[in-house]
User: Which sequence fits this backbone?
């Protein structure tokens, strides 16, 4: 197993950080890695805002459901779906930007962000840094848009805390390969795999919480997905000109 694969497969999210600042050289390498990810039509529909100001991070942490690790981590990277540059390109060529009227633009932006963030995570961890992704950046998107002064055609998709770990974290169990990898056609006969995985996650949670919780995977996912947990996303997308028709 080479060092790249070791880094990728040893990933774990960290939720307690030292106050040490990430140096500029390392941050530049992380951003360069993110920019080097593939993107749809080479449109590069992704941007990053780095937030280091403690007061701003504190505001964002509160808007993300009071996630204290956003406060603690020295750098918070906000990954943006970005068609603002495409809008300028369209204007230069006397053309209309039509793609943002369709759901395809939201998918393209999300995929570009995901690919870039994956690179950023791998780069950070290869440098001895720790991370935790923050999907709750979408909990109060209008306020985040205001804080970051985002123009139309730009939307905050996900955040990433980057810093030095101040805790040890056990590696969270993943589904076995047969649950996620299919050859030729999709195998629907996976309930028995989920049953076994639920038992595994339950044991992991017992250890992680010192016996306070034995919550398994299906309980967690079903309790969250029983509702639209970030209901402000859809109207905020429309305000940013992602019309999703």
Assistant:
């Amino acid at each position: 197993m080479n060092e790249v694969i070791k880094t990728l497969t040893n990933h774990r999210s960290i939720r307690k950080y030292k106050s040490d600042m990430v140096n500029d050289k390392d941050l530049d390498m992380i951003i360069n890695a993110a920019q080097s990810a593939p993107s749809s039509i080479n449109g590069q529909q992704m941007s990053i805002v780095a937030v280091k100001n403690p007061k701003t991070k504190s505001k964002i942490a509160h808007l993300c459901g009071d996630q204290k690790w956003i406060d603690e981590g020295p750098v918070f990277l906000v990954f943006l779906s970005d068609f603002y540059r495409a809008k300028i390109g369209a204007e230069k060529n006397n053309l209309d930007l039509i793609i943002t009227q369709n759901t395809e633009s939201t998918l393209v932006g999300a995929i570009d962000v995901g690919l870039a963030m994956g690179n950023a995570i791998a780069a950070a961890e290869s440098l001895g840094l720790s991370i935790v992704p923050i999907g709750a950046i979408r909990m109060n998107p209008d306020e985040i848009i205001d804080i970051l002064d985002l123009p139309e055609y730009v939307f905050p998709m996900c955040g990433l805390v980057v810093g030095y770990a101040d805790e040890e974290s056990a590696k969270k169990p993943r589904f076995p390969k047969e649950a996620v990898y299919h050859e030729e056609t999709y195998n629907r006969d996976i309930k028995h795999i989920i049953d076994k995985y639920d038992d595994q996650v339950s044991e992991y949670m017992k250890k992680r919480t010192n016996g306070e919780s034995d919550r398994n995977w299906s309980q967690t996912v079903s309790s969250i997905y029983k509702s639209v947990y970030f209901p402000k996303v859809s109207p905020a997308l429309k305000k940013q000109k992602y019309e999703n028709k």
User: Anything to note?
Assistant: The two ends are 46 Å apart (CA to CA). The mean pLDDT is 97. The longest helix spans residues 103-126.
